[in-house]
Amino acid sequence: MKQNFGKRLLGALAAGFVTLILCGPISGIRLDGYEFESQFKIPLLFAAAVTLLRLLSDFIPWERVQADSGELQPGPERFGALSRTAFALAIFLVAASLPLMGSKYLLSISIVALIYVLLGLGLNVVVGFAGLLDLGFVGFFAVGAYGYALGAKYLGLGFWGALPAAALTAGLFGAILGFPVLRMHGDYLAIVTLGFGEIIRLVLNNWLDFTGGPNGVDAPPPTFLGWEFKRSATQGGTPFHEVFHLDYSPLYLDSFVYLALLSVVGLSIYGVSRLRRMPIGRAWEALREDEIACRSLGLNHVAIKLSAFSIGASIGGLAGVFFAAYQGFVSPVSFTFFESALVLAIVVLGGMGSLVGVVLAALFLTLLPELLREFSDYRILVFGIAMVLIMIWRPRGLIRMRRPYFPQEGA
Amino acid sequence: MASHTQALSRDPELLRVEQLSVRFGGIVALNKVNFTVQPGTITALIGPNGAGKTTAFNCITGFYKAHEGAIWLRDRDGQPQDMVQLQKGYFGGTHRVARAGIARTFQNIRLFSEMSVLENLLVAQHQLLNRNIISGIFQLPRFRASEAGALETARYWLKEVDLESSANLLAGSLPYGSQRRLEIARAMCTKPRLICLDEPAAGLNPRETEELAKLIQKLRGTHQVTVMVIEHDMSLVMGISDHVVVLNYGEVIASGPPDAVQKDPKVLSAYLGTEDEG
Ligand SMILES: Nc1ncnc2c1ncn2[C@@H]1O[C@H](COP(=O)(O)OP(=O)(O)OP(=O)(O)O)[C@@H](O)[C@H]1O
Ligand SMILES: [Mg+2]
Question: Do the beta carbons of residue B56 and residue B245 sit within 8 Å?
């Protein structure tokens, strides 16, 4: 046990050291005029965090699969349902206290990061679970975003009504995409879905009368129980700060969007992790592993594929609503292929199916470019190199998908 | 009336294959094949490589559409049901044949390799479980009961094929012989009435083959399923089967009890390759 601890400490220190080397040059050096200014506070902080996490990782209740032995380890069951819930709740509360830091910048990048977490969760259902390579996922994001903006413009749809409506519409689009590609696999599927994403963008771009074309559409800011978060009410509600007799602060809107988004992300994580342990989720994974075997067991592969497409798409649609509500404006330029590629990178990097992995990868891939602001010219380059390196070192992604562990009978 | 009952009892076959023909381009893989499978028997399908055995299985289990012919499976009420028709229509297909009660294994093992052994068996029970989304997300009692039952069935079959200790291993990490047994257990989890095993002994060592023979007999004896088996291992075939159908170049050249088939000159020449066929 003691020896074990020493080993663990060494491993943790090594991880911290590697972080220091990796992050040092990236975030530790700032250009100041013609001079380099070294700032080792940030990488040191990073390294300390990694070391600590690594050290504590054995006490964090998540399941792990031992490298490649194929043997599953007893995971969170070891910790019991109660401590797992407590752990999830603690993370949620810590995340929910972010607005208290009072930084608009921090809030806005966190919102963007969470939107990508949601997108990653959605695409993870399609690519990670069902194994259907979808390169047009941004299409569903667009459906959600435009669904809110256009719904508000033409139907007077509010933010809270738009969430389920957009999820349903995007889900329907997912099923529509699913039908023509039912018989396709791999590369062919990728090309067709790529086309589908582009078609949606082109329609949005060219249907001037309805979507405003390249000029985009305004999306109203979200409200809650009739409270508005602007300085003065524009949608017939009362401003939030007046209800509570507070001074106006532009942080209110961001905080509200952030908290609402965080809750939706939390619910989605719960929902998706439940789905995995339900017949439908197992069927998705079985379909990814072997479609022919699935059919021989009486599984209707058509229904299973369509359900994966539409559930994934509806999560993407939700992300779209938040995007539109937060930006206050949508236009086709936000929905290019690059976004699809980024979300796919999140899923692949995260470990194809691992929820923790997807969340971490989404945070990593959206927050890292923020930290790399000074290097904005090389951002995509660094990003690409990081992807290549990770694929070489960890071809299965950062975190390998964990499998539900079934304890021995009577144990 | 009496003669009618007599006809039924004389001919209670579970599966009847009639005039089944399949062509791949110029190749005639099956040519007007006829045979029947009696309930509660072990029927072996043998023949040289490329004779069309797997093709026949693929038709019976709904993977290939026959160009001609019919495949009748007696349903639970004793009524013959045409499997070829089940594949047709937009909502038809292999899965409907499987749901009618035909399960199978594959010549090249097809497990869900990146899923655990137990999960493989849970997927197989998909049709029999509570698949309500709401019920599953909120883990309502109905859902829990259904999952607990599935887990129990899965464990039962793990015990039957002697893989209890591997429940939480990834299926792809099992040794070859265990994978074969797992595939049989998975097929059995669909609660079939007819199970089609495509070369289950391929790649097994003699001891494993012996255990497999016992397992197949147990499927028929204890679990009351009818077994069809394609096999090249003649001692296994002759040891366990009640009825043997011999295919050669897509045609049935002999069928009957194993000892009779074994002596049939047409069968001998097909296997030894002499040229005295008519
Ligand atoms: N999908 C296919 N497309 C084209 N030809 C096929 C296909 N499936 C089978 N065949 C051909 O049909 C013939 C019968 O093949 P089949 O696989 O049924 O043989 P088999 O009796 O199972 O042989 P083995 O003992 O080698 O498994 C072979 O000539 C094969 O090449
Ligand atoms: Mg074969």
Answer: no
Q: Is residue A76 part of a domain?
A: no
Cβ distance A283 to B126 less than 8 Å, yes or no, reads yes
Please tell me which residue of chain B has the smallest CA distance to A302: B91
Mean pLDDT of B254-277: 80
Please state, in angstroms and as integers, the Cα–Cα distance from residue B231 to each residue in A410, B186, B199, B218, B240, following that order: 39, 20, 5, 18, 11
A-to-B residue pairs, Cβ atoms closer than 8 angstroms? 123
Q: Are B241 and B124 within one domain?
A: no
Residue B39, classed as helix, strand or coil, is coil
The residue-averaged pLDDT of A95-111 equals: 84
CB under 8 Å to A225, separation ≥6 — which residues?
none
Arithmetic mean of pLDDT over chain B: 88
Query: Which ranges of B45-193 would DSSP assign to H, the alpha helix?
Result: 53-60, 83-86, 94-99, 117-124, 133-137, 141-160, 176-188
> Which chain B residues are within 8 Å of A288, Cβ to Cβ?
114
Average pLDDT over residues B211-221: 93
Query: Which atom of ligand 1 is nearest to B107's Cα?
Result: 27
What tens digit of pLDDT does each residue of A32-78 get?
566 656 666 666 777 777 777 767 665 554 444 444 445 555 444 55
Tally of domains in chain B? 2
8 Å CB contact of B106 and A292: yes
Is A232 in the B-facing interface, judged by CB distances under 8 Å?
Answer: no
Task: For residue B118, name the pLDDT band (cuts at 50, 70, 90).
Answer: very high
Model confidence, pTM: 0.84
The residue-averaged pLDDT of A309-335 equals: 92
Containing domain of residue A102, as a range? 97-393
Chain B CB contacts of A406 under 8 Å are 116, 118, 151, 167-168
The CA-atom distances, in angstroms, between B81 and each of A40, A73, B15, B62 are: 76, 47, 9, 13
Distances in whole angstroms, Cα of residue A192 to Cα of each of A47, A77, A317: 43, 42, 20
What ipTM was reported for this prediction?
Answer: 0.89
Q: Tell whether the model's pLDDT for residue B193 goes beyond 90.
A: yes
CB-ligand 1 contact for B52 (6 Å cutoff): yes
Number of structural domains (chain A) is 1
B95, B119, B137 member nearest A298 (Cβ):
B95
pLDDT interval class at B36 (50, 70, 90): very high
| Structural domain boundaries, residue B156 | 111-178
Minimal-distance CA residue of chain B relative to A280: B131
The minimal CB distance from A298 to the residues B63, B119, B127 is found for B127
